[in-house]
Structures are given as C-alpha cells and as structure tokens.
Design brief:
Elements (H helix, E strand, L loop, with lengths): L4 H18 L4 E4 L6 H7 L4 H8 L11 E4 L2 E4 L6 H8 L3 H8 L11 E4 L4 H6 L15 H15 L4 H16 L7 H5 L2 E2 L2 E2 L2 H5 L8 H11 L10 E4 L5 H5 L2 E5 L2 E4 L1
Helix pairs in contact: 4-5, 7-8, 7-11, 8-11
Length: 260
C-alpha cells in the first residue's frame, strides 16, 4: 500500500504533539550503565527537576535497568521502517534514537515499540548522519558489526570504555590501511605467516556473544571515534613480545597499549 512520507511525518508529528500535551510523560526509558539524570535530561530535551517530579525521585541515584518516565513520543514499527527513516520522520538524530532505545544494531520487527526523543537541534547537528552504514568511516554489514563487537568483548571486557572503542578503532584503521585487507571480517580473520592477528580467533572466544557495551564501542569506532590515535596494533601491558614493545606507542588506556 502506498504511504506518503510527508503524510506520515504530519501524522506522527500530530500524534507526538497530542501525546506530549495530554500527559506529563509518554514513554518509558530504561537506564543503562553510565547514565546520569543530567545525561537523560539532555537526551530527552528536558531538565533534571522534571525527571525528579515525573518519577517521584528522592535522590539522583539511578541504577541500570531502572524504568524512568520521560517526555517522549513512542513509535510502533511498520513494514519498511528503518531507524534512519524513523529518526528523520520525528526530527531527531539517529544517535538519539539509538541511545533512547539502547539499540546499536539495525534489526527492527513489525509492532516493535520505540521511544523517540523530541528533537534537540544542537544534538541533531552534532550527530548528523544519513544512514546506519553511511555515517561510518568504512563500509560494514550487520555481520561485520557483530563480529567487531564480539572481538571487542573478547579483547577488552573489564577495560575502560575508551579502551574498548580503541580496539574497534584498530580494526577500522587496518581496514583503511593499504597494508591490510579492506573489510572488517578479512582483517579480523587474517593469518600472516601462520599467525592469527587476533588471539580470540585462535582460541575461539570470538564466537562468544557480544556485550551491550561492546556493541556501543563498535558503533562509536565505526563512526570515527579513535582513542587509539591511529594505532594498528594493541596488546595488554603484561605482554612480553619485544617486537610489539619496540613499536611507537600511540596510546595507553587501562591495561591496553596501542602502537603504530
């Protein structure tokens, strides 16, 4: 059935307006590790006092998994929807839509309910993008994304978040380099002179499911974040490989060392 995008935008905007003016809140947000009330207020274009009032909070302490009432629209996924199209329809950024739903992959299903933050011009400008893949510094598929997140999980669980992003950045840097293969999977599974480039491929840990934090780190790395400062190799500081230690160090984060 034909569906006009302009009509869809008008209808969704009208629904959003009615929802936000009829109720003090219209959606529920699930707190994730690292969240603060201030960060949540910025995401939903509100203020901390409003969050206190809507949720009967007595302190600023929140915990992962806690449900908070927020001023936001909700969208029921229809056939043909993508995160990008939904974000454009509601005038919010793709990043904000992902953050509001803790959703860092691209899978959607019909009738899935999504929380949609109200548009925040400054945030939308900061995270301006055109699609889930085209806002990346390298091409990637959903399989590539999952593989990268699983590598990060295997290599850097327990390390600071920037260290996890940096692991992803090393893979991205290799894909961009003429000295390595030109795809994420080829880089991660590469074997040189009989040596696996990434230990989790050798020991099988690469097959373990990716953590949610690693998925976020993979997404940030694919969007160009690079705490490794352009590194092509990494190792932990207990390594005894003199060849690795001889290379120029680009960054040290937690116990991870990133070299040229």
């Amino acid at each position: 059935m034909f569906r006009s995008k302009k009509l869809r935008l008008l209808v969704s905007t009208a629904i959003t307006f009615v929802s936000l003016t009829s109720y003090s809140f219209a959606a529920t947000y699930s707190v994730v590790p690292g969240d603060t009330l201030y960060m949540i207020s910025q995401l939903f274009n509100t203020n901390v006092s409003k969050l206190y009032a809507d949720n009967n909070l007595s302190s600023s302490m929140i915990y992962p998994g806690q449900k908070l009432k927020v001023q936001a629209a909700t969208h029921t996924v229809e056939s043909g929807d993508t995160l990008y199209l939904i974000s454009k329809d509601y005038g919010t950024s793709l990043y904000s839509l992902r953050k509001a739903n803790n959703k860092w992959d691209n899978y959607l299903y019909v009738n899935q309910e999504l929380v949609v933050p109200t548009a925040n011009t400054a945030q939308a400008a900061a995270f301006k993008s055109t699609s889930a893949a085209s806002d990346s510094v390298i091409p990637y598929s959903q399989q590539d994304f999952d593989l990268l997140a699983r590598l990060i999980t295997s290599e850097a669980t327990g390390q600071p978040y920037d260290a996890q992003v940096a692991v992803g950045s090393v893979v991205v840097n290799r894909v961009k380099s003429k000295s390595f293969p030109n795809s994420i999977s080829s880089v991660i599974y590469q074997v040189i002179n009989g040596y696996y480039q990434f230990t989790p491929v050798l020991n099988g840990y690469i097959n373990n499911p990716a953590s949610e934090t690693a998925k976020k780190a993979a997404y940030d790395a694919l969007r160009g974040a690079d705490p490794s400062c352009g590194a092509l190799f990494y190792f932990d500081d207990s390594a005894t490989n003199t060849w690795l230690w001889s290379k120029p160090i680009k960054a040290r984060i937690g116990r991870m060392v990133y070299v040229e």
